[in-house]
Amino acid sequence: MDVGELLSYKPQTSLKHGLEDEEEAQPPSKNSLITSSGLGNARKKSRLTGLQRSSMSSSHSRAAMIPPTPYIPPPTPPRSISHPQHPQAGKGKPVTEVPEPSLPDAAEGVDLALQALEEPTPEEDAGPMDEARLKKLILSFDKKMLKNQELRIKFPDDPRKFMESELELHDAIEELHAISVAPQLYPLLRPMAVPHSLLALVAHDNTDIAAAVLDLLQEMTTLEGVEVSEDEEEGLEALVDGLVEEDVVAIIVQNLHRLDDQGVAGANALSAATTPEAQAVHNTLGLLENLLECRPSLCSVAASSGLLAWLLKRLRAKLVFDPNKLYASEILAICVQGSESNRQQLGELEGIDVLLQQLAVYKRHDPSTAEEQELMENLFDVLCSCLLHAGNRELFLKGEGLQLMNLMLREKKLSRNGALRVLDHALTGPEGADCCNKFVDILGLRTIFPLFVKTPSKHGKKGLSKTEHEGHVVSIIYWLLRNCRTNQKQRLMAKFLENDHEKIDRLMELHFSYLERVMATDRQLEKLQDKQSEKLSDDDMYLRRLDGGLFTLQLLDYVMLCVCAQGPPSIKRRVVKMLNLRNASVKTIKNIIREYVSNLGDSGSISNADDELSEEQHKVLDWLDKFQNM
Predict the structure, then answer these.
(1) Mean pLDDT of all residues belonging to the chain
(2) What is the pTM of this model?
(3) Which of 23, 388, 481, 537 yields a CA-CA distance of 20 to 30 A from 344?
Protein backbone atom coordinates (compact mmCIF):
# COMPACT_ATOMS: atom_id res chain seq x y z
CA MET A 1 0.00 0.00 0.00
CA ASP A 2 1.51 3.32 -1.10
CA VAL A 3 1.22 6.66 0.63
CA GLY A 4 -1.83 7.81 -1.38
CA GLU A 5 -3.82 4.72 -0.61
CA LEU A 6 -2.86 4.99 2.99
CA LEU A 7 -4.12 8.57 3.21
CA SER A 8 -7.43 7.70 1.51
CA TYR A 9 -8.10 4.58 3.63
CA LYS A 10 -11.18 4.83 5.96
CA PRO A 11 -11.44 1.94 8.41
CA GLN A 12 -14.98 0.77 9.34
CA THR A 13 -14.12 0.36 13.00
CA SER A 14 -13.59 4.09 13.43
CA LEU A 15 -16.96 4.85 11.90
CA LYS A 16 -18.68 2.33 14.15
CA HIS A 17 -16.97 3.76 17.19
CA GLY A 18 -18.07 7.29 16.33
CA LEU A 19 -21.65 6.24 15.93
CA GLU A 20 -21.62 4.54 19.31
CA ASP A 21 -20.16 7.62 20.97
CA GLU A 22 -22.92 9.73 19.45
CA GLU A 23 -25.57 7.33 20.67
CA GLU A 24 -24.17 7.37 24.19
CA ALA A 25 -24.08 11.16 24.22
CA GLN A 26 -27.80 11.43 23.40
CA PRO A 27 -30.36 11.01 26.21
CA PRO A 28 -32.10 7.64 26.16
CA SER A 29 -35.49 7.55 24.55
CA LYS A 30 -38.62 5.96 26.03
CA ASN A 31 -38.29 2.82 23.94
CA SER A 32 -34.57 2.51 24.60
CA LEU A 33 -35.24 2.34 28.37
CA ILE A 34 -37.34 -0.77 27.88
CA THR A 35 -34.49 -2.78 26.26
CA SER A 36 -31.47 -0.91 27.59
CA SER A 37 -30.16 -3.91 29.48
CA GLY A 38 -30.30 -6.27 26.48
CA LEU A 39 -28.92 -3.88 23.85
CA GLY A 40 -26.27 -2.51 26.18
CA ASN A 41 -24.84 -5.94 26.92
CA ALA A 42 -24.74 -6.83 23.21
CA ARG A 43 -22.99 -3.59 22.30
CA LYS A 44 -20.51 -3.96 25.14
CA LYS A 45 -19.62 -7.45 23.95
CA SER A 46 -19.30 -6.21 20.36
CA ARG A 47 -16.89 -3.51 21.40
CA LEU A 48 -14.71 -5.86 23.42
CA THR A 49 -14.44 -8.57 20.74
CA GLY A 50 -14.41 -6.56 17.50
CA LEU A 51 -11.90 -3.92 18.42
CA GLN A 52 -8.29 -4.90 19.03
CA ARG A 53 -6.45 -2.90 21.65
CA SER A 54 -3.41 -2.82 19.29
CA SER A 55 -5.38 -0.97 16.57
CA MET A 56 -5.82 2.23 18.64
CA SER A 57 -3.44 4.18 16.34
CA SER A 58 -3.35 7.37 14.38
CA SER A 59 -5.77 5.97 11.84
CA HIS A 60 -8.42 5.92 14.59
CA SER A 61 -7.87 9.59 15.38
CA ARG A 62 -8.13 10.62 11.75
CA ALA A 63 -11.31 8.63 11.29
CA ALA A 64 -12.85 10.44 14.26
CA MET A 65 -12.51 13.70 12.35
CA ILE A 66 -14.70 12.44 9.48
CA PRO A 67 -18.28 13.70 9.79
CA PRO A 68 -20.56 10.88 10.97
CA THR A 69 -23.16 9.55 8.62
CA PRO A 70 -26.80 9.36 9.72
CA TYR A 71 -27.67 6.23 11.71
CA ILE A 72 -30.05 3.93 9.85
CA PRO A 73 -32.09 1.74 12.23
CA PRO A 74 -32.02 -1.98 11.63
CA PRO A 75 -34.89 -3.69 9.86
CA THR A 76 -37.70 -5.23 11.84
CA PRO A 77 -36.54 -8.88 11.51
CA PRO A 78 -33.90 -9.87 14.05
CA ARG A 79 -30.39 -9.29 12.90
CA SER A 80 -26.98 -10.60 13.78
CA ILE A 81 -24.20 -8.28 14.77
CA SER A 82 -20.99 -9.02 12.78
CA HIS A 83 -17.90 -7.57 14.37
CA PRO A 84 -15.44 -6.14 11.79
CA GLN A 85 -11.82 -7.04 12.09
CA HIS A 86 -8.89 -4.65 11.93
CA PRO A 87 -7.57 -4.39 8.38
CA GLN A 88 -4.14 -5.50 9.50
CA ALA A 89 -5.48 -8.58 11.28
CA GLY A 90 -5.91 -10.57 8.07
CA LYS A 91 -8.35 -13.47 8.12
CA GLY A 92 -9.25 -14.03 11.73
CA LYS A 93 -11.85 -16.36 13.28
CA PRO A 94 -15.46 -15.34 12.68
CA VAL A 95 -17.16 -13.80 15.69
CA THR A 96 -20.20 -15.58 17.15
CA GLU A 97 -23.43 -13.86 16.18
CA VAL A 98 -25.42 -12.46 19.17
CA PRO A 99 -29.17 -11.88 18.66
CA GLU A 100 -30.37 -8.48 19.80
CA PRO A 101 -33.91 -8.06 21.18
CA SER A 102 -36.04 -5.70 19.18
CA LEU A 103 -38.27 -2.94 20.55
CA PRO A 104 -41.47 -4.28 18.98
CA ASP A 105 -41.00 -7.55 20.93
CA ALA A 106 -40.79 -5.69 24.25
CA ALA A 107 -43.87 -3.60 23.48
CA GLU A 108 -45.74 -6.75 22.61
CA GLY A 109 -44.87 -8.17 26.06
CA VAL A 110 -46.33 -5.12 27.78
CA ASP A 111 -49.55 -5.49 25.79
CA LEU A 112 -49.80 -9.13 26.81
CA ALA A 113 -49.38 -8.21 30.50
CA LEU A 114 -52.10 -5.57 30.31
CA GLN A 115 -54.39 -8.02 28.54
CA ALA A 116 -53.83 -10.56 31.32
CA LEU A 117 -54.85 -8.01 33.95
CA GLU A 118 -58.06 -7.24 32.09
CA GLU A 119 -59.09 -10.88 31.78
CA PRO A 120 -61.75 -12.00 34.33
CA THR A 121 -60.64 -14.16 37.24
CA PRO A 122 -61.94 -17.70 37.60
CA GLU A 123 -64.23 -16.57 40.43
CA GLU A 124 -65.71 -13.83 38.27
CA ASP A 125 -66.24 -16.19 35.37
CA ALA A 126 -67.61 -19.04 37.49
CA GLY A 127 -71.24 -17.98 37.25
CA PRO A 128 -73.92 -18.45 39.90
CA MET A 129 -73.31 -20.67 42.92
CA ASP A 130 -74.57 -24.21 42.42
CA GLU A 131 -73.88 -27.63 43.88
CA ALA A 132 -71.02 -28.40 41.48
CA ARG A 133 -69.21 -25.15 42.16
CA LEU A 134 -69.81 -25.56 45.90
CA LYS A 135 -68.18 -28.99 45.94
CA LYS A 136 -65.27 -27.67 43.90
CA LEU A 137 -64.64 -24.88 46.41
CA ILE A 138 -64.86 -27.26 49.35
CA LEU A 139 -62.49 -29.73 47.71
CA SER A 140 -59.93 -26.99 47.07
CA PHE A 141 -60.30 -25.76 50.64
CA ASP A 142 -59.80 -29.26 52.10
CA LYS A 143 -56.65 -29.85 50.05
CA LYS A 144 -55.05 -26.59 51.12
CA MET A 145 -56.00 -27.13 54.74
CA LEU A 146 -54.46 -30.61 54.78
CA LYS A 147 -51.34 -29.34 53.03
CA ASN A 148 -50.88 -26.63 55.63
CA GLN A 149 -51.37 -29.13 58.46
CA GLU A 150 -48.79 -31.51 57.01
CA LEU A 151 -46.18 -28.79 56.51
CA ARG A 152 -46.74 -27.41 60.00
CA ILE A 153 -46.24 -30.88 61.48
CA LYS A 154 -43.19 -31.57 59.32
CA PHE A 155 -41.51 -28.19 59.86
CA PRO A 156 -42.82 -26.87 63.18
CA ASP A 157 -39.80 -24.61 63.78
CA ASP A 158 -39.36 -23.24 60.26
CA PRO A 159 -42.22 -20.89 59.27
CA ARG A 160 -40.66 -20.35 55.86
CA LYS A 161 -41.59 -23.90 54.92
CA PHE A 162 -45.33 -23.52 55.55
CA MET A 163 -45.78 -19.79 54.96
CA GLU A 164 -46.83 -20.19 51.33
CA SER A 165 -49.35 -22.91 52.20
CA GLU A 166 -50.80 -20.65 54.87
CA LEU A 167 -51.36 -17.90 52.33
CA GLU A 168 -53.05 -20.39 50.02
CA LEU A 169 -55.27 -21.56 52.88
CA HIS A 170 -56.24 -17.98 53.67
CA ASP A 171 -57.17 -17.41 50.02
CA ALA A 172 -59.24 -20.60 50.01
CA ILE A 173 -61.18 -19.40 53.05
CA GLU A 174 -61.84 -16.08 51.34
CA GLU A 175 -63.17 -17.93 48.29
CA LEU A 176 -65.75 -19.67 50.50
CA HIS A 177 -67.50 -16.32 51.02
CA ALA A 178 -69.21 -17.00 47.69
CA ILE A 179 -71.28 -19.68 49.44
CA SER A 180 -73.00 -17.09 51.64
CA VAL A 181 -75.08 -15.89 48.68
CA ALA A 182 -76.76 -19.30 48.45
CA PRO A 183 -78.01 -20.32 51.93
CA GLN A 184 -80.24 -22.94 50.32
CA LEU A 185 -77.04 -24.96 49.69
CA TYR A 186 -76.00 -24.98 53.37
CA PRO A 187 -77.46 -28.47 53.99
CA LEU A 188 -74.72 -29.84 51.69
CA LEU A 189 -71.97 -28.57 54.00
CA ARG A 190 -72.70 -30.83 56.94
CA PRO A 191 -72.16 -34.16 55.08
CA MET A 192 -68.83 -32.80 53.80
CA ALA A 193 -67.73 -31.99 57.39
CA VAL A 194 -67.33 -28.31 56.59
CA PRO A 195 -68.50 -27.10 60.04
CA HIS A 196 -65.94 -29.39 61.68
CA SER A 197 -63.12 -28.17 59.43
CA LEU A 198 -63.93 -24.49 59.88
CA LEU A 199 -64.22 -24.70 63.67
CA ALA A 200 -60.95 -26.61 63.81
CA LEU A 201 -59.26 -23.63 62.14
CA VAL A 202 -60.60 -21.25 64.81
CA ALA A 203 -57.88 -22.63 67.08
CA HIS A 204 -55.20 -22.24 64.36
CA ASP A 205 -51.85 -20.93 65.60
CA ASN A 206 -52.06 -18.14 63.04
CA THR A 207 -54.72 -15.74 64.32
CA ASP A 208 -55.17 -14.40 60.79
CA ILE A 209 -56.53 -17.79 59.74
CA ALA A 210 -58.83 -17.87 62.77
CA ALA A 211 -60.03 -14.33 62.03
CA ALA A 212 -60.79 -15.24 58.41
CA VAL A 213 -62.89 -18.22 59.54
CA LEU A 214 -64.83 -16.10 62.04
CA ASP A 215 -65.51 -13.52 59.35
CA LEU A 216 -66.79 -16.27 57.06
CA LEU A 217 -69.05 -17.85 59.70
CA GLN A 218 -70.45 -14.49 60.72
CA GLU A 219 -71.38 -13.72 57.13
CA MET A 220 -72.84 -17.16 56.48
CA THR A 221 -75.11 -17.01 59.54
CA THR A 222 -76.47 -13.58 58.59
CA LEU A 223 -79.49 -13.67 56.31
CA GLU A 224 -79.80 -10.32 54.57
CA GLY A 225 -82.80 -9.01 52.72
CA VAL A 226 -86.33 -8.04 53.56
CA GLU A 227 -87.85 -11.31 52.38
CA VAL A 228 -86.10 -14.57 53.21
CA SER A 229 -87.30 -17.69 51.46
CA GLU A 230 -88.22 -20.86 53.28
CA ASP A 231 -85.32 -22.72 51.66
CA GLU A 232 -82.86 -20.12 52.95
CA GLU A 233 -84.26 -20.39 56.48
CA GLU A 234 -84.00 -24.17 56.36
CA GLY A 235 -80.45 -23.87 55.07
CA LEU A 236 -79.49 -21.59 57.95
CA GLU A 237 -81.08 -23.99 60.43
CA ALA A 238 -79.04 -26.84 58.95
CA LEU A 239 -75.82 -24.83 59.22
CA VAL A 240 -76.53 -23.84 62.83
CA ASP A 241 -77.31 -27.47 63.69
CA GLY A 242 -73.96 -28.49 62.27
CA LEU A 243 -72.10 -25.79 64.18
CA VAL A 244 -73.88 -26.57 67.45
CA GLU A 245 -73.05 -30.24 67.01
CA GLU A 246 -69.37 -29.25 66.88
CA ASP A 247 -69.69 -27.19 70.10
CA VAL A 248 -69.32 -23.87 68.30
CA VAL A 249 -70.13 -21.66 71.30
CA ALA A 250 -67.45 -23.13 73.55
CA ILE A 251 -64.85 -22.92 70.76
CA ILE A 252 -65.42 -19.29 69.83
CA VAL A 253 -65.71 -18.18 73.47
CA GLN A 254 -62.40 -19.85 74.22
CA ASN A 255 -60.89 -18.09 71.22
CA LEU A 256 -62.14 -14.73 72.58
CA HIS A 257 -59.79 -15.08 75.53
CA ARG A 258 -56.91 -15.57 73.07
CA LEU A 259 -57.65 -12.46 71.03
CA ASP A 260 -56.43 -9.08 72.28
CA ASP A 261 -58.58 -6.32 70.78
CA GLN A 262 -57.39 -3.69 73.25
CA GLY A 263 -54.06 -2.96 71.67
CA VAL A 264 -50.67 -3.68 73.16
CA ALA A 265 -51.35 -3.34 76.88
CA GLY A 266 -53.85 -0.65 76.01
CA ALA A 267 -51.06 1.67 74.88
CA ASN A 268 -52.98 3.16 72.01
CA ALA A 269 -56.66 2.81 72.76
CA LEU A 270 -57.70 5.08 69.90
CA SER A 271 -56.22 2.81 67.25
CA ALA A 272 -56.94 -0.46 69.04
CA ALA A 273 -60.44 -0.63 67.59
CA THR A 274 -59.01 -0.87 64.05
CA THR A 275 -56.60 -3.77 64.67
CA PRO A 276 -57.18 -7.17 63.04
CA GLU A 277 -57.77 -8.63 66.49
CA ALA A 278 -60.51 -6.07 67.14
CA GLN A 279 -62.20 -6.99 63.86
CA ALA A 280 -61.96 -10.66 64.78
CA VAL A 281 -63.62 -9.96 68.15
CA HIS A 282 -66.35 -7.98 66.39
CA ASN A 283 -67.02 -10.87 64.00
CA THR A 284 -67.08 -13.31 66.92
CA LEU A 285 -69.69 -11.24 68.74
CA GLY A 286 -71.69 -10.98 65.53
CA LEU A 287 -71.57 -14.76 65.12
CA LEU A 288 -72.69 -15.19 68.74
CA GLU A 289 -75.60 -12.83 68.18
CA ASN A 290 -76.73 -14.81 65.13
CA LEU A 291 -76.46 -18.11 66.99
CA LEU A 292 -78.34 -16.86 70.05
CA GLU A 293 -81.06 -15.48 67.81
CA CYS A 294 -81.53 -18.89 66.17
CA ARG A 295 -81.04 -20.88 69.39
CA PRO A 296 -81.95 -18.90 72.55
CA SER A 297 -81.12 -21.97 74.61
CA LEU A 298 -77.44 -21.43 73.79
CA CYS A 299 -77.36 -18.51 76.27
CA SER A 300 -76.80 -20.93 79.14
CA VAL A 301 -74.15 -22.81 77.17
CA ALA A 302 -72.33 -19.56 76.43
CA ALA A 303 -72.39 -18.55 80.09
CA SER A 304 -71.02 -21.90 81.22
CA SER A 305 -68.22 -21.50 78.65
CA GLY A 306 -67.04 -18.27 80.28
CA LEU A 307 -68.74 -15.72 78.04
CA LEU A 308 -70.20 -13.64 80.88
CA ALA A 309 -66.79 -13.31 82.52
CA TRP A 310 -65.22 -12.15 79.26
CA LEU A 311 -68.02 -9.64 78.58
CA LEU A 312 -67.72 -8.13 82.06
CA LYS A 313 -63.96 -7.91 81.64
CA ARG A 314 -64.43 -6.15 78.31
CA LEU A 315 -66.88 -3.65 79.84
CA ARG A 316 -64.60 -3.03 82.80
CA ALA A 317 -61.59 -2.15 80.61
CA LYS A 318 -60.67 1.52 81.02
CA LEU A 319 -60.50 2.40 77.35
CA VAL A 320 -62.16 5.01 75.22
CA PHE A 321 -65.49 4.06 73.71
CA ASP A 322 -65.18 1.60 70.82
CA PRO A 323 -67.62 -0.54 68.80
CA ASN A 324 -66.64 -3.76 70.55
CA LYS A 325 -67.62 -2.38 73.94
CA LEU A 326 -71.03 -1.51 72.54
CA TYR A 327 -71.36 -4.95 70.99
CA ALA A 328 -70.34 -6.61 74.27
CA SER A 329 -73.14 -4.77 76.08
CA GLU A 330 -75.67 -5.97 73.48
CA ILE A 331 -74.59 -9.61 73.81
CA LEU A 332 -74.68 -9.35 77.61
CA ALA A 333 -78.24 -8.00 77.46
CA ILE A 334 -79.29 -10.93 75.25
CA CYS A 335 -77.69 -13.47 77.60
CA VAL A 336 -79.45 -12.27 80.77
CA GLN A 337 -82.87 -11.43 79.36
CA GLY A 338 -84.04 -15.00 78.90
CA SER A 339 -82.02 -16.96 81.45
CA GLU A 340 -82.49 -16.91 85.22
CA SER A 341 -79.28 -18.88 85.72
CA ASN A 342 -77.32 -16.28 83.75
CA ARG A 343 -78.71 -13.50 85.97
CA GLN A 344 -77.60 -15.38 89.03
CA GLN A 345 -74.16 -16.09 87.57
CA LEU A 346 -73.67 -12.45 86.63
CA GLY A 347 -74.35 -11.46 90.23
CA GLU A 348 -71.85 -14.04 91.46
CA LEU A 349 -69.24 -12.59 89.07
CA GLU A 350 -69.69 -9.15 90.70
CA GLY A 351 -71.47 -7.99 87.58
CA ILE A 352 -73.81 -5.67 89.51
CA ASP A 353 -70.85 -3.62 90.72
CA VAL A 354 -69.40 -3.51 87.20
CA LEU A 355 -72.69 -2.22 85.79
CA LEU A 356 -73.04 0.43 88.49
CA GLN A 357 -69.47 1.61 87.94
CA GLN A 358 -70.00 1.92 84.20
CA LEU A 359 -73.32 3.77 84.65
CA ALA A 360 -71.90 6.16 87.26
CA VAL A 361 -70.09 7.97 84.43
CA TYR A 362 -73.44 9.21 83.11
CA LYS A 363 -74.64 10.59 86.44
CA ARG A 364 -73.67 14.14 85.55
CA HIS A 365 -72.55 13.77 81.93
CA ASP A 366 -74.56 12.80 78.87
CA PRO A 367 -73.13 10.37 76.29
CA SER A 368 -71.14 12.21 73.63
CA THR A 369 -72.41 10.16 70.66
CA ALA A 370 -75.48 8.20 69.66
CA GLU A 371 -73.48 4.96 69.89
CA GLU A 372 -72.40 5.75 73.43
CA GLN A 373 -76.01 6.52 74.34
CA GLU A 374 -76.94 3.09 73.01
CA LEU A 375 -74.24 1.59 75.22
CA MET A 376 -75.74 3.34 78.25
CA GLU A 377 -79.23 2.05 77.41
CA ASN A 378 -77.88 -1.49 77.03
CA LEU A 379 -76.27 -1.29 80.47
CA PHE A 380 -79.59 -0.18 81.97
CA ASP A 381 -81.33 -3.08 80.22
CA VAL A 382 -78.83 -5.55 81.66
CA LEU A 383 -79.26 -4.11 85.15
CA CYS A 384 -83.06 -4.26 84.93
CA SER A 385 -82.92 -7.91 83.85
CA CYS A 386 -80.50 -8.81 86.63
CA LEU A 387 -82.79 -7.27 89.26
CA LEU A 388 -85.44 -9.85 88.36
CA HIS A 389 -83.29 -12.29 90.34
CA ALA A 390 -84.01 -11.79 94.04
CA GLY A 391 -80.40 -12.34 95.10
CA ASN A 392 -79.21 -9.43 92.98
CA ARG A 393 -81.51 -7.00 94.83
CA GLU A 394 -79.30 -7.34 97.90
CA LEU A 395 -76.15 -6.81 95.83
CA PHE A 396 -77.75 -3.76 94.24
CA LEU A 397 -78.61 -2.40 97.69
CA LYS A 398 -75.11 -3.01 99.07
CA GLY A 399 -73.54 -1.42 96.01
CA GLU A 400 -75.52 1.79 96.70
CA GLY A 401 -77.44 1.39 93.50
CA LEU A 402 -80.46 3.16 94.97
CA GLN A 403 -78.38 6.23 95.79
CA LEU A 404 -76.97 6.31 92.25
CA MET A 405 -80.40 6.03 90.62
CA ASN A 406 -81.78 8.72 92.93
CA LEU A 407 -78.95 11.10 91.97
CA MET A 408 -79.54 10.42 88.28
CA LEU A 409 -83.21 11.37 88.67
CA ARG A 410 -82.21 14.64 90.31
CA GLU A 411 -79.55 15.56 87.73
CA LYS A 412 -82.08 15.48 84.86
CA LYS A 413 -79.63 14.04 82.35
CA LEU A 414 -80.30 11.42 79.68
CA SER A 415 -79.66 8.73 82.28
CA ARG A 416 -82.84 9.73 84.16
CA ASN A 417 -85.09 7.52 82.03
CA GLY A 418 -82.91 4.46 82.61
CA ALA A 419 -82.68 5.18 86.32
CA LEU A 420 -86.48 5.32 86.55
CA ARG A 421 -86.76 1.90 84.91
CA VAL A 422 -84.15 0.43 87.25
CA LEU A 423 -85.97 1.80 90.31
CA ASP A 424 -89.21 0.25 89.12
CA HIS A 425 -87.53 -3.16 88.84
CA ALA A 426 -85.70 -2.82 92.16
CA LEU A 427 -88.85 -1.95 94.18
CA THR A 428 -91.24 -4.39 92.48
CA GLY A 429 -92.55 -7.43 94.34
CA PRO A 430 -92.14 -8.65 97.89
CA GLU A 431 -88.40 -9.07 97.19
CA GLY A 432 -88.15 -5.28 96.87
CA ALA A 433 -89.28 -4.52 100.43
CA ASP A 434 -85.79 -3.67 101.67
CA CYS A 435 -85.18 -1.44 98.66
CA CYS A 436 -88.50 0.35 99.25
CA ASN A 437 -87.67 1.18 102.86
CA LYS A 438 -84.14 2.23 101.91
CA PHE A 439 -85.46 4.46 99.15
CA VAL A 440 -87.61 6.38 101.63
CA ASP A 441 -84.65 6.64 104.04
CA ILE A 442 -82.42 8.26 101.39
CA LEU A 443 -85.10 10.89 100.72
CA GLY A 444 -86.19 9.32 97.48
CA LEU A 445 -89.74 10.62 97.95
CA ARG A 446 -88.45 14.12 97.26
CA THR A 447 -87.30 12.87 93.87
CA ILE A 448 -90.14 10.63 92.74
CA PHE A 449 -93.16 12.80 93.59
CA PRO A 450 -92.14 15.80 91.44
CA LEU A 451 -92.03 13.32 88.55
CA PHE A 452 -95.49 12.12 89.56
CA VAL A 453 -96.98 15.63 89.60
CA LYS A 454 -95.48 16.64 86.25
CA THR A 455 -94.28 14.33 83.52
CA PRO A 456 -91.07 15.73 81.98
CA SER A 457 -90.64 16.12 78.24
CA LYS A 458 -89.18 13.26 76.24
CA HIS A 459 -85.40 13.21 75.69
CA GLY A 460 -84.72 12.31 72.05
CA LYS A 461 -86.20 9.47 70.03
CA LYS A 462 -85.02 6.75 72.41
CA GLY A 463 -86.40 8.33 75.58
CA LEU A 464 -89.44 7.16 77.50
CA SER A 465 -92.81 8.18 76.17
CA LYS A 466 -95.30 10.03 78.37
CA THR A 467 -97.29 6.86 78.95
CA GLU A 468 -94.20 4.81 79.80
CA HIS A 469 -92.93 7.46 82.20
CA GLU A 470 -96.27 7.68 84.01
CA GLY A 471 -96.48 3.90 84.22
CA HIS A 472 -93.07 3.58 85.91
CA VAL A 473 -93.75 6.37 88.42
CA VAL A 474 -97.18 5.00 89.38
CA SER A 475 -95.70 1.51 89.75
CA ILE A 476 -93.00 2.83 92.11
CA ILE A 477 -95.56 4.59 94.33
CA TYR A 478 -97.77 1.49 94.28
CA TRP A 479 -94.97 -0.78 95.54
CA LEU A 480 -93.86 1.77 98.11
CA LEU A 481 -97.35 1.62 99.61
CA ARG A 482 -97.33 -2.18 99.59
CA ASN A 483 -93.79 -2.82 100.87
CA CYS A 484 -92.91 0.02 103.25
CA ARG A 485 -92.94 -0.46 106.99
CA THR A 486 -95.07 1.70 109.27
CA ASN A 487 -92.62 4.57 109.78
CA GLN A 488 -91.75 4.86 106.10
CA LYS A 489 -95.42 4.56 105.10
CA GLN A 490 -96.37 7.48 107.35
CA ARG A 491 -93.83 9.65 105.54
CA LEU A 492 -95.29 8.46 102.28
CA MET A 493 -98.86 9.34 103.32
CA ALA A 494 -97.74 12.79 104.36
CA LYS A 495 -96.70 13.50 100.77
CA PHE A 496 -100.34 13.34 99.64
CA LEU A 497 -101.22 16.18 102.04
CA GLU A 498 -98.63 18.66 100.78
CA ASN A 499 -99.62 21.78 98.82
CA ASP A 500 -103.35 21.41 99.50
CA HIS A 501 -103.58 17.76 98.40
CA GLU A 502 -101.75 18.43 95.15
CA LYS A 503 -100.84 14.75 94.71
CA ILE A 504 -104.48 13.68 95.19
CA ASP A 505 -105.57 16.02 92.43
CA ARG A 506 -102.91 14.58 90.15
CA LEU A 507 -103.94 11.05 91.13
CA MET A 508 -107.56 11.66 90.14
CA GLU A 509 -106.49 13.38 86.93
CA LEU A 510 -104.52 10.30 85.91
CA HIS A 511 -107.44 8.07 86.93
CA PHE A 512 -109.84 9.78 84.52
CA SER A 513 -107.22 9.92 81.77
CA TYR A 514 -106.47 6.19 81.86
CA LEU A 515 -110.15 5.34 82.28
CA GLU A 516 -110.83 7.01 78.93
CA ARG A 517 -108.00 5.01 77.34
CA VAL A 518 -109.38 1.74 78.63
CA MET A 519 -112.87 2.57 77.39
CA ALA A 520 -111.43 3.38 73.95
CA THR A 521 -109.57 0.07 73.97
CA ASP A 522 -112.77 -1.80 74.85
CA ARG A 523 -114.57 -0.21 71.91
CA GLN A 524 -111.77 -1.23 69.54
CA LEU A 525 -111.86 -4.80 70.82
CA GLU A 526 -115.62 -4.97 70.30
CA LYS A 527 -115.22 -3.89 66.69
CA LEU A 528 -112.45 -6.42 66.22
CA GLN A 529 -114.62 -9.19 67.62
CA ASP A 530 -117.41 -8.33 65.19
CA LYS A 531 -115.07 -8.47 62.17
CA GLN A 532 -113.30 -11.71 63.05
CA SER A 533 -114.92 -15.08 62.66
CA GLU A 534 -112.98 -16.51 65.60
CA LYS A 535 -113.54 -14.79 68.91
CA LEU A 536 -110.64 -13.82 71.12
CA SER A 537 -110.25 -15.77 74.34
CA ASP A 538 -110.82 -14.10 77.68
CA ASP A 539 -107.10 -14.18 78.43
CA ASP A 540 -106.25 -12.50 75.13
CA MET A 541 -108.88 -9.86 75.74
CA TYR A 542 -107.57 -9.17 79.21
CA LEU A 543 -103.96 -8.89 78.03
CA ARG A 544 -104.93 -6.44 75.31
CA ARG A 545 -106.86 -4.35 77.81
CA LEU A 546 -103.83 -4.33 80.13
CA ASP A 547 -101.67 -3.02 77.29
CA GLY A 548 -104.36 -0.46 76.50
CA GLY A 549 -104.01 1.23 79.90
CA LEU A 550 -105.86 -1.08 82.29
CA PHE A 551 -102.66 -2.08 84.12
CA THR A 552 -101.78 1.49 85.09
CA LEU A 553 -105.44 2.25 85.88
CA GLN A 554 -105.57 -0.65 88.33
CA LEU A 555 -102.44 0.63 90.10
CA LEU A 556 -103.88 4.15 90.28
CA ASP A 557 -107.13 2.93 91.83
CA TYR A 558 -105.21 0.75 94.29
CA VAL A 559 -103.25 3.83 95.41
CA MET A 560 -106.54 5.75 95.70
CA LEU A 561 -108.13 3.12 97.96
CA CYS A 562 -104.98 2.74 100.06
CA VAL A 563 -104.53 6.44 100.85
CA CYS A 564 -108.27 6.80 101.52
CA ALA A 565 -108.28 3.82 103.90
CA GLN A 566 -104.98 4.49 105.72
CA GLY A 567 -104.57 8.24 105.35
CA PRO A 568 -106.21 11.15 107.19
CA PRO A 569 -109.93 11.90 106.49
CA SER A 570 -109.04 14.95 104.39
CA ILE A 571 -107.76 12.66 101.65
CA LYS A 572 -111.11 10.86 101.43
CA ARG A 573 -113.01 14.13 101.21
CA ARG A 574 -110.71 15.33 98.40
CA VAL A 575 -111.24 12.15 96.41
CA VAL A 576 -115.03 12.36 96.75
CA LYS A 577 -114.95 15.99 95.72
CA MET A 578 -113.01 15.19 92.54
CA LEU A 579 -115.40 12.36 91.68
CA ASN A 580 -118.42 14.61 92.11
CA LEU A 581 -116.87 17.33 89.93
CA ARG A 582 -116.59 14.82 87.06
CA ASN A 583 -119.94 13.15 87.78
CA ALA A 584 -118.03 9.89 88.13
CA SER A 585 -119.55 6.75 89.57
CA VAL A 586 -118.01 4.78 92.41
CA LYS A 587 -119.28 1.68 90.64
CA THR A 588 -116.64 2.12 87.93
CA ILE A 589 -113.85 2.07 90.51
CA LYS A 590 -115.45 -0.94 92.16
CA ASN A 591 -115.45 -2.92 88.90
CA ILE A 592 -111.81 -2.06 88.21
CA ILE A 593 -110.68 -3.12 91.68
CA ARG A 594 -112.68 -6.36 91.60
CA GLU A 595 -111.09 -7.27 88.28
CA TYR A 596 -107.69 -6.46 89.78
CA VAL A 597 -108.33 -8.64 92.85
CA SER A 598 -109.56 -11.53 90.73
CA ASN A 599 -106.18 -11.71 89.00
CA LEU A 600 -104.08 -11.51 92.18
CA GLY A 601 -102.41 -14.69 93.36
CA ASP A 602 -103.42 -18.08 92.05
CA SER A 603 -107.17 -17.81 92.59
CA GLY A 604 -109.15 -17.45 89.42
CA SER A 605 -112.13 -15.52 90.74
CA ILE A 606 -113.27 -13.61 93.81
CA SER A 607 -116.22 -15.99 94.03
CA ASN A 608 -113.93 -18.65 95.51
CA ALA A 609 -114.11 -19.52 99.18
CA ASP A 610 -112.68 -16.97 101.60
CA ASP A 611 -109.94 -19.32 102.74
CA GLU A 612 -108.57 -19.42 99.17
CA LEU A 613 -108.16 -15.67 98.98
CA SER A 614 -104.79 -14.24 99.81
CA GLU A 615 -104.19 -11.78 102.59
CA GLU A 616 -103.67 -9.05 100.02
CA GLN A 617 -106.99 -9.77 98.38
CA HIS A 618 -108.79 -9.60 101.72
CA LYS A 619 -107.16 -6.28 102.48
CA VAL A 620 -108.08 -4.70 99.16
CA LEU A 621 -111.68 -5.89 99.40
CA ASP A 622 -111.93 -4.35 102.88
CA TRP A 623 -110.68 -1.04 101.48
CA LEU A 624 -113.26 -1.27 98.73
CA ASP A 625 -116.10 -1.78 101.23
CA LYS A 626 -114.98 1.23 103.25
CA PHE A 627 -114.70 3.31 100.09
CA GLN A 628 -118.28 2.44 99.05
CA ASN A 629 -119.61 3.41 102.47
CA MET A 630 -118.12 6.92 102.33
Answers:
(1) 81
(2) 0.76
(3) 481
